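Sequence in, structure out. Go.
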Amino acid sequence: MKHSKESKEIGFIRARALDDLFNTSDEEIRNEYREAGQDMAAIAKQTRDCLRDVVAVGMRTKLASAKAATKASAAKKPTNRFRPAMEIVKKLVAEAFQREPKVAIAFRDGKKQTDEDLATVYDDLVRMGIIKSEDYGD
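Output:
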């Protein structure tokens, strides 16, 4: 991809401006704003709001991408409607969490998981491929 002379110049200016910003102390920046008569609290709030919005957009984009990938993955793999007995489900879920330390779940208010909660977790682990049908002899 060819870069025009203007875009190279803009990139150069942007790099120099960032260098200047990085080399300027916080106190020097505050003094510049004070000398210009600007309210530091308002600038801090504006910056915080702007950064929060940028992060939120990034998180929404990442979430949308993850949802699309999950949907595509779920569409490819038919869900096995067979679920073993609850005692086996509990055993398989516990073994899966011991075997896969990066897999974790949290329950609200630290309450004990119901059988329905564990069944949902089991179904999710099967969909993710962490528990396979051969784990319980299907």
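Check: DSSP finds five helices and no strands in the chain. The chain has two domains: 5-74, 78-135.
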